[in-house]
Each structure stands twice: as structure tokens, then as C-alpha cells.
TrEMBL record, chains A, B:
The protein's name: Alcohol dehydrogenase YqhD (Iron-dependent ADH family)
One Gene Ontology term of the molecular function aspect: butanol dehydrogenase (NAD+) activity
SUPFAM superfamilies tied to this protein: Dehydroquinate synthase-like (SSF56796)
Top-rank taxon: Bacteria
Domain Alcohol dehydrogenase iron-type/glycerol dehydrogenase GldA stretches: 9-176
CDD domains named among the record's database cross-references: BDH
GO CC terms, sorted: cytosol
Annotated keywords: Oxidoreductase
PANTHER family the record matches: ALCOHOL DEHYDROGENASE YQHD
Record domain Fe-containing alcohol dehydrogenase-like C-terminal: where: 187-386
Amino acid sequence: MVNFEYQTPTRLMFGRDAIKKLPAVMERFGKRVLLSYGGGSIKRTGLYAKVKELLPDYEITELSGIQPNPKYDPSVLDGVRLCKEKQIEVILAVGGGSVLDCSKAIAAGACYDGEPWDLISGKVKAKAALPIVDIITLAATGSEYDCGGVISRTETNDKIGYMDALLFPAVSILDPVYTFTVSRRQTAAGTADAMNHVMEQYFTGESTLLNDGFMEATLKSLMVNVRKALENPEDYNARAELMLDCTYGCNGILSLGSSYSGWPCHGMEHALSAYYDITHGEGLAIITPRWMKHILSEKTVERFVKYGVNVFGIDPGLGKFEIAERAIQATYDFFASIGIPMHLKELGIDEGRIDEMARHVAENEGLEYAWAPLRQRDIADIFRASL
Amino acid sequence: MVNFEYQTPTRLMFGRDAIKKLPAVMERFGKRVLLSYGGGSIKRTGLYAKVKELLPDYEITELSGIQPNPKYDPSVLDGVRLCKEKQIEVILAVGGGSVLDCSKAIAAGACYDGEPWDLISGKVKAKAALPIVDIITLAATGSEYDCGGVISRTETNDKIGYMDALLFPAVSILDPVYTFTVSRRQTAAGTADAMNHVMEQYFTGESTLLNDGFMEATLKSLMVNVRKALENPEDYNARAELMLDCTYGCNGILSLGSSYSGWPCHGMEHALSAYYDITHGEGLAIITPRWMKHILSEKTVERFVKYGVNVFGIDPGLGKFEIAERAIQATYDFFASIGIPMHLKELGIDEGRIDEMARHVAENEGLEYAWAPLRQRDIADIFRASL
């Protein structure tokens, strides 16, 4: 087992009507709030009105219009400016992972005198950050329980993940009911995102029975419950379990003591959504089985065997490569079965910029250090196989 | 899924030589330290000397001799007195769960003007507590990652569990190498303790695929790795995985969203070790299969089927009661196979005080509200079946 440090100080408040505790939660942070949200679905669902009703005596400044693959300009920059102007004391992020990721960048940027990109790019280490409370409306990214985020900078086609222990949300409020209205497409994409978070950690050199068991359980729970949620979008227990599954995706608890895996599919998908602004979870679902196929080898096959037998129930009596290939096909088939478009072309991506994207990934994502190292040519091959 | 709140702010520092970070960890708490430990094994192993060497400029007051089933008088009372006299700023607990449980009671008592028992008994809610850093030398209780403890008061035969969010350790240092010298008997008892922590949460009315999967993985990891550790006490990976398994036992993360289970075996075992001062994990291992047999019914059988199939690999094609009975026998056989004495008589407990203990449990442990409710007569029957 590999040495590790682990701490996740975030308080989870989970369940139906958990929002009732919002006033008690907010009390300790001060009255000047930045309310950050996305395209307005929280107005349609009544959540926006509910938040306002619960915090009548707060001075609320709003930052709306945060997009999927949240943008440095304008969202992060606007948020930082508002925080400074209004002397914001706490950020209340209401939405999915993009809203929260953006809010994390704002929380750090608000306490920094220079250009916020310095912090996101890792050039400067943040010394402080505003506290964050979030109300999550989409089961997907796990941002509610980690200290990281991903920000896109359009002019340079950069999509950068950053992490800082200062950026754990203080409190995450998770009410599965808010996910009842999530579309079929976003429900499937969110599940694919969460499944890939697990797989990125599962496919590694050194793991433990415990970690493997946790990850296999999370994958199986995601697969069973997304089917139920697609069949009946108001199945509370299915939505709740999806939400809890997603929570563990990115804070490391599933792979404590495991060796470095490198998160290759995320590295590659970041380029796809930086260049084409596609839905992150769909990009991941498309890449994942092609990546698996590409890296399958004598060195990696045993992990695929374990995955195939324990997650998909493939007969352990078969030959190891047969099990691995069936497992990869089962992965593809599962994503297809929940309605994910399984070719990049369906998302409007063609051959045109593949080599450019592959070079960008090779130069920026460090995938030559992944468990199964990827160089520019590998990355381009995987992109092409995904078309 | 049941609503829940969850937060575990403790930082885990895990792995070989993790202790090297002790000076950096201690820095923020102040120089006046209460060093709490047990019977002196940390002197034999060199850990005591190492701690002293790493903290040369600290003002260290010692509280030694903390016993298994830690005692209110003298340990808690002495610790509280020392903290007040020496104006202690942080407690450094070095040992197993008993040392840490005792240190938690001291941490709260040191910041309270009245009788510390008020806090342990729940009569008064603590308003503050000293910070705690621990170095764990036994894989068992999970106290390093929860905010609870169990304290025994000899004159009243009370053994009381108390919890307070103030009592999460700030930092837990876990180096599996420190457990290499743990005896066969304590290794087995610690594993049985951790397994029972999981089972107490597994056997409940409402759970999730995710929780069940986490718990089944933890049980399987404990069973596989304790065998390896017994065979080769210096098997680092086995000791490490045992240690990590145990960490999750009692902070609730294995059963988020599950319904109230009641922790019945702990309720019963507390009486056994309060009256007879036996090893907690052995008491639990003896009671568990008898409790299972006692509560097996049409209402409970499905959980036993899931347990039997997923943990012990029993053929799911068999009849449900046959699976359940085989699972209970497998539980007994497993504990016996790792050398645990499986009869209370072997620990010096006879018929004599069974009715008195059963009454004590029935009056104090609330087991009539457990998933499978237990009244005094049930408790006495389970004790008798355990003789």
C-alpha cells in the first residue's frame, strides 16, 4: 500500500428537505453572500425562490449564467470582481458541478490581489479563500465533496483542473428531489462522469481489496440506479443513491493507498470539451472504452479481468483476454444503453483538430506518467478510434 | 434512503514512517502536551523514544497506564487533573483505541469545570475540548476516525459509549509497522471488533447497494488480511489494509442513508467487559453468531441471505433459511479459525451474573429499539447461548 494523507472536512447534509437547514448553516459566515448559479433552471424549479425565502435578511449579490465547462472569462472574473466590490463573506453555489467548480475558483480569486489565473494554473498557491456552501442539483462531478475544480479558458483552449485544500465546501446540501427534473441526457452523462471518476482510480498498478471493493460497489450502484432513474425520474431512492455514489468520485477516498493512476480519460476529455465545449460526461463515456482497448496488454490485463468479473459478472473461467475484451464491450454497451451518443462525430467532432488536440494533451496533461503511459500518438489513436 | 448529516474532519496520515511528520503536525497546537499511553509497549517498541526525540522542545506531561476498557477512575480523572494543572494545550495519544477513547474523555473534561462523568453520561454537552493528535498502534476500534469513545466505571459496572463532534482527532497518524508486534490474540480480537462494527451497521432495515457493497468489501478485506497477518506478522500490506479497514468502522461512512440499526452486540458486550473486564473484540466475536441465530426470522432472513452470498460466497440457489444458517455458522467458524475463544466460559464468565447483566443491558442500552428488538429475556438467552 502506498502512503497517503487524507482529509475531507466538508459537512454533508443529505436528504429530502435538507435545505431547511440552510439558515442555520449560513449563520456563521456573515450576511454578504454571493449567490452563484447557472442558466436559470433553479428559477424554473422554485429553488431560487426558496433560497431567497430562507435568507430574507441577507445581502445577496448574484452571479448567474455560469455555463457547463465553466469559463474563466467571464464567469470567474466577474465573480471575483463582485466579491471584491461587495465585500462578500460567503459564496452560496446552487447548481451542478460547473457552478461549484466556478465558485471555487472565485472563492480563491476573491482573496488574491493578482490575476486569478495564477491560482488556477498553479503559478501561485492561494493563501486564503472565501467559505463555500453549495446546494447540488445534479448527481455527477463530486465537486461537493472535493477541493478541486475545472476551469476552461476559451482563447487558449485550456481546460485546467486545479485543487487546493482551502476549497473544500464548508457545507454541501444534497436533496435528491432537486435532481428529479434533470433530463435523461444529463442524468446519463452525469452517471458516466461519476463512473469514469471511479474507473480512473480503479485502473492502476497497486490497489487493495478494500479500495477495489468500494469502487466495484460504486460502479454497480451507479449502473443499477441510473436505469431506475431513467425509467422513473422521480424514484427517490434511485436518485438518492446516484447522488451519494457521485459524492465519492473525486476526493480520493475510493483509492486511499492506491498507486498513482494518472486520470488519463479526464486528461483527454479536457481537450475535447475545451476545443468543442461538449458535455464532459459524454466525452468521457466515448473515450473510456477506446482507451481501455488501447491500453489492454499483458501488463494491464489482470485489472481488466478483475473489473470484468466483479463489476459485470463475467465468467472467471474464461481466458484472461477474453474476459478483458468482454468487459470493455460491456462498458461500451452500458453507456450506449443509457442513451449516450457513443461517437465523437455525433457531438460534432471530426478528424480536423485531432492531432492538435493530441499535442495539447500530450504537452499539458502528463499522461506519459499514467499507469498505462500515453504519448501523443496514443492519444491521437484513441481520439480517432472514438470518432 | 434515510436523511443524514456526515462530517469527519480528521486528517489521516497513513503509511510507513508517517511519524516523521509529527513535528509539523504538532506545531500549530502549542507546546504543552499531555502524552497519554497504555501499559508500556510503546517503550519496548521504541515508539516512546521516537516521540520524545521528535518533540525535543515540547513540555510533555505523561499519563501512562491507561488500560483496555479504559477506566474513568483513575485514568480519565488523572488526565483531566493533569491537563488543568499543567495547562495542557494538546493531547498526544499513543496506543490503541483504549488510549484514544480515554484521551477523548480527558480532552472534553479538561475544558469543563464540573465532574467529567457529566459529559460522558450525556448529562451535560461539552462546549469545548482540547485538540487530540494520535499515533495508533493497533488496528481495531476506528477511534482514530470517529468522535466517540467508551469509558468504564468500575464501581457501577457501567461501560458507556459517548460521542461529541468536538472529539474528532485533529490528526491521526497510522503506521502499519507499529502493528507488527501486536500479538496473535490481539490481532484476532481487533479484527473481530472491526468486523462487528461493520455487521452492526449491515444488519438493518433499510440500506443501499452502495453501503452494502462498502461493508461487504470491508468484511472480506478484514478476513483475508487477518489471515495473512497471523501467518506473517510483518506482512506490511496485510497490516496496512487491516488498519485502513478498521478506520472506517465507527464514523458512519459505511452506512450513510441507512436506517437505525441499534448496535445490539456492542450493547451486550459492554456489560460483559464492564462486569468481567474481558477483551472487547473477543466478547463481540462470541456474542455475534449467537445474536444472529437468535434474531433470525422471516423478517430478518433476507439480510442474512445477502450477507451469506456476498461475504461468504454461499450458493444463492439454496433456500433462504439454509443460506442464513450457513452464513451464521461461517461467521462462527471464521472467528474460531483465527483463534478466538468462542465461549464465554473460556474467559471466566459463568451463569452467575447473567440475569443481572441482562437487566443492566435492557435498562441502559435501548436495545428494544434495535432493528431486531431485544428485551431482557432475549439478552439473557443470547448470553446463555454464548457460555
